[in-house]
Amino acid sequence: MNILEKRTIFPLTRLHAPMLLEAWLENGEIKDAFISDTLYRGFEQILVGRSAMDMPYYTQRICGICSSAHAITAALAVEQALGMHVPPNGLLVRNLILASDFIQNHIRHLYLYILPDYFRGPDIAPFLPHSEFDLRLSSQETTAMTEHYFKAIEISRVAHAAFAVFGGKAPHGHGLVPGGTTMEVDADKVSRYQGYIMEVLSFIDDVLLPDVELIKERYPEYINLGKGNGNYLSVGGFSSPEGSTLFPQGVILQGKQENFDEQQVTEDVTNAWYKPHGPLHPMEEDTVPDLSQAKGYSWVKSPRYRGQPVEVGPLARAIINKEAVIGHGAIPRTWARALELKKLAKTTLEWLNRLEPGSKTLDTKMEQDSGIGIGLHEAMRGSLGHWVSIKNGRVNHYQIITPSALNFGSRDETGTRSVGESSLLGLKIQTEDLMEAGRIIRSFDPCFSCSVHIMDGQNLYKLKIQV
Q1: What's the average model confidence in pLDDT over 58-86?
Q2: Above 70 in pLDDT, residue 229?
Q3: 3-state secondary structure the chain
Q4: Which of 45, 43, 23 is nearest to 34 (CA)?
Q5: Phi, psi of 158 (to 5 degrees)
Q6: Quick one: how far is CA 399 from the chain centroid?
Q7: With bands split at pLDDT 50, 70 and 90, how would you rate the model's confidence at 126?
Q8: pTM of the full predicted structure?
Q9: Mind spelling out the 3-state secondary structure of 62-102?
């Protein structure tokens, strides 16, 4: 009987620091993997008792890189609960704010997280310490990639400038509220936003897409390495005033595509540090931390759709939208993100042309002050859901499922791995730092600041991490 070798990496570089990877290897091949979130935070309980109208502001603080996605999803939940309706101009402005946030996220993810796995940067931070493993770019290509890395930082600032035109500031904008957006539309704002996007589009066409194509050509094995389980989910997003969406809803389970049914979403905490319960719908679930949970190894719950783990993100959106993809592994996730980036940037120009200067962007009328609301919208990393119960204008119950929880949740009551964990199985490892595994994990764009939302301040000092 072979003895498995255990390797633990904590933290994983160029990712959110709380992520811990424990891999079990046999003859250099990953046979099992556990991915944990070691960060203990607080949002779902913090929101209870607060004004429902403030939810877009509070939930933005879950994450600084995708704050607008939480704001819009929270607003959608509150609007459904209270019977609020967004004017057409408000829908378009919302799309413009969120799209610019998508753009900065995708650019930063590609250059700051993904590409440094494939080229050797200069002898300065953040490129130190260097990895010399499996570098296939020429010296000329490496120099160009380094220049593009720093240029990408400048362009991501341009995307944030576009965000601020209608969002007020970035991150954690002020413009997204229940009922629409607070910023009015005028010719100056339209012109400024358009100028920023044209600069971004030039960078995408001239620099970013060729860089991603180069990595795809030099590392063809990663087209298949890091495949998920074949299940994909998109809750849709970027609605038009007519009701159509840029990102359609849909689910693929075991190769079969079906309509999305929100009632099939559950969370399980069998192997997470919470008071044990089996699969529950978010409106039925409470969040009670329990560090004595014997099976617990992560603060991330186990979100499931129809009892199965699903992959979410740009690749899932492309597959569900029946767009051409180059595969299902690590590089295809990056390729799908790059193509989605261009599609979003081009679509913002169409939304700009549809804006009506002077028409209202906000309607604060409510049909009632109590109710139940469900907000669903695609975020940068994948599907995002907010579930809220409101009584007399105050939050009575709030639950959130994030893309990183869907991709990297703990194992469920059946012991089934998340998509992120299963994507590492069979991977051949040649490096001490599990760099091959890092390439795959980063392709999902994990955000572990988003994935845990519960905090017990009195017992925080008792936190111990054990895997």
Answers
A1: 94
A2: yes
A3: CCCCEEEEECCCCCCCCCEEEEEEEECCEEEEEEEEECCCCCCCCCCCCCEHHHHHHHHHCCCCCCHHHHHHHHHHHHHHHHCCCCCHHHHHHHHHHHHHHHHHHHHHHHHHHHHHHCCCCCCCCCCCCCCCCCCCCCHHHHHHHHHHHHHHHHHHHHHHHHHHHHHCCCCCCCCEECCEECCCCCHHHHHHHHHHHHHHHHHHHHHHHHHHHHHHHHCHHHHCCCCCCCCEEEEEEEECCCCCEEEEEEEEECCEEECCCHHHEEEECCCCCECCCCCECCCCCCCCECCCCCCCCCCCCEEEECCECCECCHHHHHHHCCCCCCCCCHHHHHHHHHHHHHHHHHHHHHHHHHCCCCCCCECCCCCCCCEEEEEEEEECCEEEEEEEEEECCEEEEEEEECHHHHHHCCCCCCCCCCHHHHCCCCCECCCCCCHHHHHHHHHCCCCHHHHCCCCCHHHHHHCCCCC
A4: 23
A5: -60, -40
A6: 17
A7: confident
A8: 0.94
A9: CCCCCHHHHHHHHHHHHHHHHCCCCCHHHHHHHHHHHHHHH
| Amino acid occupying residue 45 | Q
Lowest mean pLDDT among 61-70, 71-80, 254-263, 450-459: 450-459
Measure the CA–CA gap between 381 and 312, rounded to whole angstroms. 7
Backbone phi, psi, residue 464, to 5°: -130, 140
Does pLDDT of 444 surpass 90? yes
Contact present, 430 and 133 (Cβ < 8 Å): yes
Q: How far apart are alpha carbons 166 and 193 in whole angstroms?
A: 9
pLDDT band at 452 (very low <50, low <70, confident <90, very high): low
Between 289 and 94, the higher pLDDT residue: 94
Retrieve residue 66's tokens.
């995708």
**Phi/psi at 100 (nearest 5 deg)?**
-65, -30
- 28's torsion region: left (phi>0), alpha (psi -120 to 50) or beta? left
Which amino acid does the sequence have at 52? A
Judged against a pLDDT cut of 90, whether residue 370 lies above it is answered with yes
According to the model, what pLDDT value does residue 292 have?
87
Q: Which two tokens stand for residue 148?
A: 């593009």
Averaged pLDDT for residues 253-271 = 96
Residue 199: pLDDT band with limits 50, 70, 90: very high
- Sign (positive or negative) of CA dihedral 444, 450, 455, 461: positive
**What is the torsion angle, in degrees rounded to the nearest 10, for the CA atoms of residue 408, residue 413, residue 414 and residue 416?**
0
Q: What is the pLDDT of residue 457?
A: 41
